[in-house]
C-alpha cells in the first residue's frame, strides 16, 4: 500500500483529492494543514475510523514539519494556495527520495526552479510532476490524445470555469495567488509556425450556450506540445467572468495592487462574489484541424463542479505515476499516457466526448 501526504488537504481541491484517493484500497492518506480544527472536520467527513486517513497539523514553511512528513510517505501532493510553494516542496521531496505532485499555476519562474531538480530526480529515481489538474493539466493531454488518433495540423483549447463565488470561503493566500495568475498571464499562442503575443488574439468557443470570447494564456504544457507534436498552430484560451469583472474590476485590481495589495485583493473578491457568481461548471474544449485536410475535430471534457474537475486528473496522474514510475521532472500533460488517462478520468466521473468518437484505450 502506498502512503501519500497531501499539503493543503482542507482546501476545496485538497479535500477532493483525499476523498478520491481513498476510493482506492491501494492508498493511505496523511492529510496536512496548518489548522487542526479543519483537520478534525476532514477526518470526520472522510474517514472517522482513521483506518486509512490520518492527519497532521503542519506548516509547509517550517522545514521540520515538512521533513517529518516526507520521512513517512511515498509521494507528497502540493495543494496549497501559493505557486511559490512548488519549487521549495519539490526540492525537499526530491532530496528525501519522495515523489512530488503539484497542482500549482503554470509560470516560467516556477518551472525554472523545478527543471533544476532533474538530475537529482533521475539520480534518486524520483518523479516531480506539476501543472496537474484541469487548468493547467488537461489541454496538453487533450492535444496529445487527439493527435495520436487523428494527426492534427492545428489544435486550440478553450476553457470556461464558472463558480458560485458568493458561496465560497477562500483564504487571503488563495485570492492573492489568483491575482498573481492574472498579473503573470502571458497571452501567447503558436500560429503557423511562430509565436504571437497579445490580448487581441482572442478566439471564440461555443461551450454549449453560444460563442464566448476567450483570451490566450500560455502554459508550460503548450510549449511542450508545440515541440513534441509537430503542430503548425496551438494555443490555450480562457473564458472570462463577464464584462464588468473583466473590463472594470480586474484592471482596477491590478492597478491598485501596485499601491495596496490588501485593498486590491478585497476589490477582486468583491467583484467575483457580486458580479461573477454563477452555477458551477467546468468545460475544457479542443477544436482542431486534421493534418490531412480531412476536416475538423473536437473534444470536450466537463463536469458541474470545477473543483472536482481539478481533483480527478490529479488523482488519475498519481495512480499512473505510482503504477508506472518515470523518474524526472514533468508536467502532467507530458507525463501521462493519454489513452489510459482519459479512460480513468471517465471512470472517475468526468464527461468526455469527441468528434470523431475516440475508442477507449482498451479497444485500441
Word description of this protein:
The chain is α/β, with parallel strands linked by helices. The chain is built from 14 helices and 16 strands. The chain has helices at residues 12-22, 36-46, 63-70, 85-95, 108-115, 118-124, 138-149, 172-184, 220-228, 243-257, 261-275, 306-323, 332-335, 338-347; strands at 2-7, 27-33, 53-57, 75-78, 99-102, 127-130, 152-162, 188-191, 194-197, 203-206, 211-216, 233-239, 281-290, 296-303, 328-331, 351-355. The strands form 3 sheets. It has a 7-stranded parallel β-sheet, with helices on both faces. Strands 10-11-12-7-13-14-16 form a 7-stranded mixed β-sheet. A two-stranded antiparallel sheet has the order 8-9. Helix 4 packs parallel to helix 5, helix 10 packs antiparallel against helix 11 and helix 12 (306-323) crosses helix 14 (338-347). The protein is globular.
Biggest sheet: strands, sense, closure?
A: 7 strands, parallel
**Which stretches are low in confidence, meaning pLDDT under 50 for 5 or more residues running?**
none
Order of helices and strands: EHEHEHEHEHHEHEHEEEEHEHHEEHEHHE
Strand order of the largest sheet: 3-2-1-4-5-6-15
Could you give the count of β-strands?
16
Q: What is the general shape?
A: globular
Estimate what percentage of residues fall within beta strands: 25-35%
Mean pLDDT: 92
Helix content: 40-55%
